[in-house]
Amino acid sequence: MILTVLLGCEPAASPGEVYTVEVSGAVEYLFEGDTLQLEVALLDRDGAPVQAEVEWNSDAETVATVDDGLVTVVGKGLALISAQTPNGGWGTAGVTVVHRWETLSLAGDALCGLEEGAAVCWGESDDGVLGTDNVSSIALPGWPMASGPFQAIRLESYWGCALAEDGAPWCWGSLDGAEFTPATALTTSEPLVVLGLSCGLTAEGDLWAWGWDGESFRTEAEPVFTGLGLETLSGTYANGCGVDADGTGWCWGSGPALGNGTGEDQATPGQVIGDTVWSQLVHGGYAACGIDTEGAGYCWGHQAGQLGIGTAMGTDIATPTRLDIEVPLRSIALGATHTCAVDVEGGTWCWGENGSGQLGRDDGEPVYLPVLIDTVPPLVDVWVSARTSCGLAPDGAAYCWGHLRGGPELVGARM
Known about the structure:
The protein is mainly beta. Helices cover 0% and strands 50% of the residues.
């Protein structure tokens, strides 16, 4: 990237004097600890190279310092690096320093992520989802809400939980009517290794849960379903899905999201119909989606635009139906009315409602079959909420699009 600034002083620069300062070498973003060598070209009014002393400066030395064009990143944020000549010529390059995320989670208009094990939240919430009881809006990721270190994080509309490295869940917000601010460690006699929504899996694959059990609020995780040997988990202990070590899919709860072929409720886990060997299942309340071991994607449940199979709105699909995506999928995220998936080549596919641009398209029009979104850079994972979608680049940078961000935009790229 080259940024050019013309000398704006009177009288105009004479031939042989600096008239244009071009700073090159800027990149889209950097991380803390990175260095970047900027170059400067000095030209006279005829475009010929000239020689002159150059003074380099940073307008935010808590973010980045500069010495002879070498930028050293020391903190997150935005910095403007300038190169100035004695006769007033100057050029600039912007430096954006972002978080290097391990994972993200979205719910409503709130987002949280893990960076070096610390939980950081931002967005909008009046229910304590941001981890504080006196702030309802945080424009950009800031200080950690809880230091952890954590290995997983999940948000729901009114609360969030993170899984500490020792296997204990920490929760915050309004969890089934109980208020937790700041984040509070819950107790569990068996360490958890996989985190769901107010539930988790032990190393043996048993599902343990906490929160409201219909009669009282449990602050200690207790076993709910045992003996299944689950390795993945999505949803809650009341409505959810998981995959066991053999690739068998199990779902429980209510409605056609169970994939049992009948749409009948199941209080305990039942197998997803068919002989598909699953690698991932995601539960979204009234619908579910999954990826098999070959990378093929499937969705089923109550059609609100999020199934991606072209059926009419309001239709119930009780069995897994394959998505029309030829490239094998790596990850899939299911929202109330839209879904996004990432393929093994880094491409992002989205479908469903698009009133807030959550499909990565600025036309606001819904799309009910999978469409490759060419406005999103290559990703390795994706998450969605009702009106926002976010994805993770291979290096840990995050991009979001939809209600909170507009078009696909680097998280941390604006103040």
